[in-house]
């Protein structure tokens, strides 16, 4: 992305002290911002990976506004907010006043007037979360739960937390392969951005030409159309979901053909580095993107990803609320995230 565009993204997401006030995209954030999110998420995990509740958002209201269907992302955001002691409202946007002709802007302003502190938004239009943060509700913390094909930043960060906790070596020594429908995947884009920012040694994308975006090489990745060659020696294998509407289209002849050429089988895992990590953002199509014995095997971290997703979303909610309060002068500008996490400073703030 052009440097001017990245600067604009930074301006939208950060407050006057350079801290998060919205979480819209991994683009425009520094390595230190990503590390802060990961380190904060770690504080919500116990020794055995169990989630630790902390009342950092007590008295705050988080509204989940999902304009697209979602189970996993919406549910984990709801769990994350409740574990922070927030009040959570799930707004059915399919039944909202936007269906009666009310503009999106007016709908959001009405919800803001109901004392919302944070909106978690999933929208079919790329850039929707940025528009809301910049032009509609800048004083409400906007968290992007996925926008079009553009970005799914909390999924990218939970993938990074999974790798950080299980790879056994730093990102600078890792070769990571992302496999499947790169062209239509906001997860792939966020993972690539995060891996680049965190300094991964090599990022590979493996897919047929029909599922690769034009100019993907410009993102600093190595492209493979041969799956067996692409997974050779990789430390991390991330299989992406194939959307059902792609199957039987000119992009993808059949699910059987895709699995034969690009499915993550046990034999292909064995071609990767010893003890390579196996990941998938879910929901999985078993026997299409990944074999069941791989998804359920000893190298699979798929269920860990779900658990870490709660911790990452807790971190993003807490840090963004902190950033909004800082911007409004309600927190000292030198308050660091770790100080916040180790105290109950949010309690009683207005």
Task: Give a written overview of the molecule.
The protein has 13 helices and nine strands. With 350 residues, it is of the alpha/beta class. The longest helix has 26 residues, at 302-327. Helix 5 (128-136) links the parallel strand 3 (118-123) and strand 4. Helix 3 (72-83) packs across helix 12 and helix 6 packs across helix 12. The strands form two sheets. A five-stranded parallel β-sheet has the order 7-6-5-8-9. A four-stranded parallel β-sheet has the order 2-1-3-4, with helices on both faces. It starts with a helix and ends in a 9-residue tail after the last helix. It has helices at residues 3-13, 31-42, 72-83, 104-113, 128-136, 153-166, 186-197, 227-230, 255-262, 266-271, 292-295, 302-327, 337-341, and strands at residues 61-66, 87-92, 118-123, 141-147, 175-179, 202-206, 222-224, 236-239, 277-279. The chain is 38% helix and 13% strand. The radius of gyration is 20 Å and the shape is globular.
Question: What structural keywords apply?
Answer:
four-stranded parallel beta sheet, disordered C terminus, 350 residues, five-stranded parallel beta sheet, single chain
In short:
38% of the residues lie in helices and 13% in strands. The protein is α/β, with parallel strands linked by helices and 350 residues long.
């Amino acid at each position: 992305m052009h440097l001017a565009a990245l600067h604009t993204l930074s301006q939208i997401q950060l407050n006057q002290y350079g801290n998060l006030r919205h979480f819209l995209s991994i683009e425009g954030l520094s390595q230190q911002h990503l590390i802060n999110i990961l380190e904060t998420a770690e504080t919500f995990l116990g020794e055995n990976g169990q989630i630790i509740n902390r009342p950092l958002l007590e008295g705050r209201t988080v509204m989940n506004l999902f304009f697209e269907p979602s189970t996993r992302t919406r549910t984990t955001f709801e769990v994350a907010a409740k574990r922070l002691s927030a009040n959570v409202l799930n707004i059915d946007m399919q039944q909202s006043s936007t269906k009666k002709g009310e503009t999106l802007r007016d709908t959001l302003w009405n919800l803001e007037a109901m004392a919302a502190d944070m909106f978690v938004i999933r929208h079919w239009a790329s850039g929707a979360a940025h528009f809301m943060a910049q032009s509609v509700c800048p004083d409400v913390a906007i968290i992007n739960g996925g926008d079009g094909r553009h970005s799914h930043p909390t999924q990218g960060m939970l993938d990074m937390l999974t790798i950080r906790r299980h790879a056994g070596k730093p990102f600078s020594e890792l070769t990571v392969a992302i496999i499947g429908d790169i062209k239509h995947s906001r997860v792939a884009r966020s993972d690539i951005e995060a891996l680049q920012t965190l300094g991964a040694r090599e990022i590979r994308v493996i897919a047929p030409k029909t599922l690769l975006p034009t100019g993907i090489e410009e993102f600093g990745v190595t492209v493979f159309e041969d799956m067996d060659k692409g997974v050779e020696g990789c430390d991390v294998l991330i299989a992406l979901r194939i959307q059902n509407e792609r199957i039987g289209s000119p992009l993808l002849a059949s699910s059987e053909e895709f699995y034969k050429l690009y499915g993550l089988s046990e034999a292909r895992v064995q071609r990767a580095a010893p003890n390579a990590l196996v990941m998938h953002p879910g929901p999985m199509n078993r026997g299409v993107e990944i074999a069941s014995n791989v998804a359920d095997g000893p190298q699979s971290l798929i269920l860990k990803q779900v658990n870490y997703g709660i911790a990452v979303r807790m971190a993003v909610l807490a840090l963004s609320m902190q950033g909004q309060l800082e911007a409004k002068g309600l927190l000292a500008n030198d308050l660091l995230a770790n100080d916040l996490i180790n105290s109950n400073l949010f309690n009683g703030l207005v």
